Every structure is written in C-alpha cells, then in structure tokens.
Amino acid sequence: MIVPLIIIGIVVILVLIAVLFYNSFVRKKLKVENSFSEIKIQCKKRFDLVPNLVETVKGYAQHEKETLENVTLARSAGASAKSVRELAAANSQLTQTLNKLFALGEQYPDLKANINFGKLQDELVTVEKAIAVSRSFYNDAVMMYNRAVKTVPGNMFAAMFKFKEAEFFDAPEAELENVTVKF
C-alpha cells in the first residue's frame, strides 16, 4: 500500500518539475521574442526616416547617386528582414551607408546648414540609441534563455520539449571597426 503511494508521489513531483521547467522556458522565450519585436520597431522607425533623409540630400548632392541608392537598398533589406541575422546584417549595412551620407554634409555646407537635414540626423541618432538599448535588452533575454536551455537540469527538459538556443543580435565585424569614408 505504501509503495504505490510513493511511486504516485514521485510521478506527481516529476510532472510538477517538468511543468515548472516548461513554463520557465516559455516565459523566457516570450521575453526574447518581445525584445526582438522592440528592436524591429526601432529599426522600422529608422527605416522610415531614411527616405526623408535621402530626399533632403538629393537636392544638394544630385551627383552622389550611388551613395543615395546604397542607402535606399540597405533600407529595403532591413525592412524585409525576417530573422535576427538578416536584421543585424541589414542594420549594419544601413549604418555604413548612412555614415557615408552624413559625411556628405561635411562636403556640402548648404546641406549641413539645412534644418531638415539636421533634424533628420538628430532623429536618427535618437533612434540609434533606442536600437542599442533594445539590442542590449534582447541580448540579455537571449543570454538568460540560453543559459536555461544549456544548463543542467534544464537542458534535459529543453531537449524533451524541443526548446532550442536563441540567436544573439551581434554587431557584425564591420560595425566594430572604425568607419573610414572615402570619396
């Protein structure tokens, strides 16, 4: 009589532990997804500012067509990105091309003095800071989730429930280097 009760008790405890681990993984995964969503929102704001910036620059630097086209292409790549890796790559490409675009302001004093150009630059700087904060929150959420997926005993439950590691939003190597602008 006691043995079946002990077995039932052990089974109930194991089921409760499995449920607790499952719920913990779900909460952590949702936090990762929510954090990535915030990055996408900030990047969308950035991508939405780019056409206005390009139009402002066009009036002053019409012969800089290649730079303007590269900015537009980078914006399109970012707007259509689906994964963390695609968005990070597009974001890096856009950063590089925007740096070249902002360098045009140094070459064209009238453009640098343009109020719209200055406002758009300021807005982009604000959005860049928001993206950096969002990326930090996302990577923290990924770290906590991945730690739960990789450590014992969580890794056994993660495998059982098919929870996989999440991808970090890394800065590509090109973004870590000093920017050099050549014309």
The CATH homology group name: LemA-like domain
Number of helices: 7
CATH top-level class:
Mainly Alpha
* Strand residue percentage: under 5%
Count of strand segments: 0
Let me know the largest β-sheet: none
Overall, the morphology is: rod-shaped
Which architecture would the CATH scheme give at its second level?
A: Up-down Bundle
Secondary structure category:
mainly alpha
User: Separation of termini?
Assistant: 87 Å
Domains, number: 1
- What is the helix/strand order? HHHHHHH
The residue-averaged pLDDT reads 88
- In CATH, the topology is named de novo design (two linked rop proteins)
Low-pLDDT residue intervals, each spanning 5 or more residues: 178-183
| Radius of gyration (Å) | 24 Å
Share of helix, binned: over 70%
Description:
The chain is an all-alpha fold. It has one domain (2-176): LemA-like domain (de novo design (two linked rop proteins)), CATH 1.20.1440.20. The protein is 81% helix and 0% strand. The longest helix has 57 residues, at 2-58.
